[in-house]
């Protein structure tokens, strides 16, 4: 069991998300940076979708009440055990009574704490992910607070990638190879596929969208990344019936996760976003780069790089291969 | 008026769009019409029936639909080919489906939405009136009562569910000439009471939970559209009650009835009044008012 | 002789010197503050985080204006 002392600004239990309910208005939730979440799980011998704790800007402090094997990945939050620093992207053994302190993010915005066996919270509609708007999943459907006690799973989700199921203790000391550790300080551009209802934009507006260094607003969170920069201009039109008179209005439609809606300035919809609405959507962040955007801190800049769908698919395939390689390498450490 | 028909709309060619690598969005029309919506429902029903491998989410929209896929299982272009072939096979005039006619009691001009709409007057087109006064005038009615009579005078079909869990977008089942239309707030409100009944564009909505919103506010229903704990009998199978294709019949109630229903909801005993019916777009288009009367009769 | 301490923001966001637009500032330049005393707030994701003095001292200057943007680890104020 893990006993929380400080929950940080926004720490929630997340797995890879909930699917099959988008049509009733339920977004997937799940880890904002699925790469960091998955690697954290692999480092402790879990399956990719075991539940971890996602911490935003500020980590948790907690007492570990049983011996456990943990890993912290994602944004560097200077984790420590009993005051001694431990490495990020590394498998660490902790003992009952140890004090775990995860501090503030230096580079990146979100860190993931995985525990061998997974965080044991109830499965709600096919996922353990927290969706705070309606209060489901995770720990009581909300962010973690002082006094919360989280059970550690008994290992149902432990990976068997190494053939024989080894005990997570054998993974202790594993460090993720340098080549797999992302550098969140490098503000790489975020790839998008233009489309959806981008016919509403003028050609100039499409250029503005892709040429601007957008600034992440302080409100940017799990629901959406509101970006600050120039206004986006729409083409003039005769209002279609049911759309509403504002040039940014369309007849309410479904919003993909990662889609960029444009009330005037762009908002990129994230894992807890609304599933539909009446604003024009003009493109979608490719699935692999949604995690990259999720690590961009408030006030940092983001530029969009328009790619075609083939590039988006091949980036996804590369990411899958990369994660498979990581899983195999970690298993080989045993 | 009784002889008025709904003329099916000639839809443009669908616009097939990629939502990056893992979504396909298909816009059937820019403008709302029953033709576009029935087509979206028919195609997404076909997608569900064919159980296409790699399809993760299947979401009918008002005049569009959207699918989420695993592109490592099915390429978006492969899916689009299949969608085009489904599209070409579908004739909505021959399509029928089972749906529900549901009684939705509403306390119009209730104290809670009134307080909210007065609080956000500075974000509204008409800072001096109420949302209902504004809507009535804009649609050529000489009083709020006459406007509300039109609003409850014909049922509203759920044409999409989303935004947040359980929010139904509903399109009133009348010919275009009788459709009501209002803009959304100039700037969205940061607050809306739960169970508020609103209207924006050509859609009525019921807000499941308290939160932001931009639709004109008319009233509040005592019944729930979302029950996360699944305590109410109608929510045994799903946390959400309305489904696309459902037919909501708004019924004006007084405060006494509102309070009585609310008590039943809070004690977990309330059950919706509804009946299952077979819906025929063709018969509906042919004589909408008569068809609606027959639909609504089953729950009266 | 007096030593100068810088108070840095642990996180990015918007800096506030008062709890509410209608209320007094937490502290003014020249004020004596205790260790752990709140000198401001940082807002991010609609959450407010207290900025506290790490030790007792006199506020010498603020390096960020009220409602100014700050980055993680940016200096907010100096204590003496």
Largest interface: A-B, 54 and 61 residues
Tell me, what's the shape of chain B? globular
Number of separate strands of chain C? 8
Bin the helical content of chain C: under 10%
Mean pLDDT across all amino acids of chain B: 95
Overall 3D shape of chain C: globular
Annotated CATH architecture of the largest domain in chain B: Beta Barrel
- Multimerization status: heterotrimer
CATH homology superfamily name of chain C: RNA polymerase II/Efflux pump adaptor protein, barrel-sandwich hybrid domain
Pattern of helices and strands of chain B? EEHEEHEHHHEEEEEEHEHH
| Strand arrangement across the biggest beta sheet of chain B | 5-10-8-9-7-6-11
End-to-end distance of chain B, in Å? Answer: 23 Å
Largest sheet of chain B: 7 strands, mixed, barrel
Query: How would you state the average pLDDT of chain C, rounded?
Result: 92
How much strand of chain C? Answer: over 45%
From the alpha-carbon coordinates, what is the Rg of chain B to the nearest angstrom?
20 Å
Poorly predicted sequence stretches spanning 5 or more consecutive residues of chain C: none
Give the strand line-up of the largest sheet of chain C.
1-8-6-3
The first-level CATH class of chain C is given as: Mainly Beta
Low-confidence stretches of chain B: none
Short description:
The complex is a heterotrimer of chains A (334), B (300) and C (80). Chain B is of the alpha+beta class. Chain B contains 8 helices and 12 strands.
List the helices and strands and how they pair.
The complex is a heterotrimer of chains A (334), B (300) and C (80).
Chain A: E1 2-6, E2 10-14, H1 34-43, E3 52-56, E4 61-64, E5 68-74, E6 80-81, E7 84-85, E8 92-94, E9 99-101, E10 110-115, E11 119-120, E12 149-152, E13 190-194, H2 203-211, E14 214-216, E15 224-228, E16 249-254, E17 259-261, E18 267-269, E19 276-279, E20 281-285, H3 287-294, E21 301-302, E22 304-306, H4 309-332
Parallel strand pairs in A: 13-22
Antiparallel strand pairs in A: 1-4, 1-12, 2-3, 3-10, 4-9, 5-8, 5-10, 6-7, 6-9, 11-12, 13-20, 14-15, 14-21, 15-18, 16-19, 17-18, 17-20
Helix pairs in contact in A: 1-4
Chain B: E1 15-19, E2 23-27, H1 34-50, E3 55-60, E4 64-69, H2 76-89, E5 97-108, H3 111-119, H4 131-138, H5 144-153, E6 156-161, E7 168-172, E8 196-200, E9 203-206, E10 216-220, E11 247-252, H6 255-266, E12 274-279, H7 281-286, H8 288-297
Parallel strand pairs in B: 5-11
Antiparallel strand pairs in B: 1-2, 2-4, 3-4, 5-10, 5-12, 6-7, 6-11, 7-9, 8-9, 8-10
Helix pairs in contact in B: 4-5
Chain C: E1 5-8, E2 13-16, E3 32-33, E4 38-44, E5 47-52, E6 57-62, E7 68-70, E8 75-79
Antiparallel strand pairs in C: 1-8, 2-4, 2-7, 3-6, 4-5, 6-8
């Amino acid at each position: 069991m893990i006993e929380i002392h400080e929950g940080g600004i926004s720490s929630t239990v997340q797995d890879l998300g909930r699917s099959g309910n988008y049509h009733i208005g339920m977004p997937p939730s799940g880890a904002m940076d699925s790469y960091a979440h998955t690697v954290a799980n692999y480092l402790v011998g879990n399956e990719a979708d075991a539940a971890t704790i996602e911490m935003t800007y500020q980590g948790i402090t907690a007492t570990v009440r049983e011996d456990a094997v943990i890993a912290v990945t994602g944004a560097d939050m200077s984790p420590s055990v009993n005051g001694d620093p431990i490495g990020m992207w590394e498998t660490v053994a902790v003992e009952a009574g140890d004090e775990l302190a995860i501090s503030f993010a230096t580079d990146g915005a979100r860190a993931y704490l995985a525990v061998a066996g997974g965080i044991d919270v109830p499965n709600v509609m096919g996922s353990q992910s927290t969706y705070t708007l309606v209060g489901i999943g995770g720990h009581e459907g909300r962010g973690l607070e002082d006094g919360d006690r989280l059970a550690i799973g008994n290992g149902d989700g432990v990976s068997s990638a190494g053939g024989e199921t080894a005990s997570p203790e054998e993974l202790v000391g594993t460090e993720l190879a340098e080549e797999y550790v992302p550098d969140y300080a490098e503000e790489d551009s975020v790839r998008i596929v233009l489309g959806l209802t981008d016919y509403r934009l003028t050609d100039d507006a499409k250029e503005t969208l892709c040429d601007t260094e957008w600034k992440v607003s302080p409100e940017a969170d799990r629901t959406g990344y509101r970006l600050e920069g120039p206004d986006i201009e729409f083409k003039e039109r005769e209002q279609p019936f049911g759309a509403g008179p504002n040039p940014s209005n369309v007849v309410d439609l479904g919003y993909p996760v990662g889609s960029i809606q444009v009330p005037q300035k762009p908002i990129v919809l994230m894992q807890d976003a609304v599933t539909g609405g009446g604003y024009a959507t003009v493109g979608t962040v490719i699935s692999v780069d949604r995690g990259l955007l999720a690590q961009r801190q408030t006030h940092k800049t983001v530029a969009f790089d328009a790619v075609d769908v083939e590039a988006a698919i091949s980036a996804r395939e590369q990411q899958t291969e990369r994660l498979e390689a990581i899983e195999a390498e970690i298993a080989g450490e045993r | 008026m009784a002889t008025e028909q709904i003329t099916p709309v000639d839809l443009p060619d669908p616009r097939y769009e990629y939502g990056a690598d893992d979504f396909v969005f298909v816009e059937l029309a820019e403008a709302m019409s029953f033709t576009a919506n029935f087509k979206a429902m028919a195609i997404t029903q076909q997608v569900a029936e064919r159980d296409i491998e790699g399809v993760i989410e299947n979401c009918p929209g008002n005049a569009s639909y959207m699918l989420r896929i695993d592109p490592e299982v099915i390429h978006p272009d492969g899916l689009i080919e299949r969608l085009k072939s489904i599209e070409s096979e579908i004739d909505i005039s021959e399509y029928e489906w089972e749906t529900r006619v549901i009684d939705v009691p509403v306390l119009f001009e209730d104290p809670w939405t009134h307080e909210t709409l007065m609080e956000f007057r500075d974000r509204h087109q008409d800072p001096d009136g109420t949302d209902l006064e504004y809507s009535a005038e804009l649609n050529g009615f000489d009083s709020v009562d006459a406007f509300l009579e039109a609003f409850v005078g014909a049922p509203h079909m759920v044409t999409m569910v989303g935004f947040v869990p359980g929010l139904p977008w509903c399109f009133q089942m009348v010919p275009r000439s009788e459709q009501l239309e209002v803009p959304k707030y100039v700037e969205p409100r940061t607050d809306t009471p739960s169970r508020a009944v609103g209207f924006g564009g050509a859609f009525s909505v019921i807000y499941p939970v308290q939160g932001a919103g931009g639709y004109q506010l008319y009233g509040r229903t005592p019944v729930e559209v979302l029950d996360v704990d699944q305590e109410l009998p109608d929510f045994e199978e799903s946390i959400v009650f309305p489904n696309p294709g459902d037919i909501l019949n708004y019924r004006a109630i007084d405060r006494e009835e509102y309070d009585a229903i609310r008590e039943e909801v809070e004690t977990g005993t309330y059950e919706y009044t509804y009946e299952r019916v077979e819906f025929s777009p063709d018969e509906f288009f042919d004589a909408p008012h008569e068809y609606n009367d027959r639909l609504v009769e089953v729950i009266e | 002789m007096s030593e100068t301490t810088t108070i840095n923001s642990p996180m990015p966001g918007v800096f506030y010197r008062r709890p509410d637009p209608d209320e007094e500032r937490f502290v003014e330049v020249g004020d004596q503050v205790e260790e752990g005393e709140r000198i401001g707030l940082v807002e991010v994701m609609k959450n407010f985080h207290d900025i506290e003095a790490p030790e007792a001292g006199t506020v010498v200057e603020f390096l960020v204006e009220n409602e100014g943007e700050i980055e993680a680890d940016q200096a907010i104020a100096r204590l003496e």
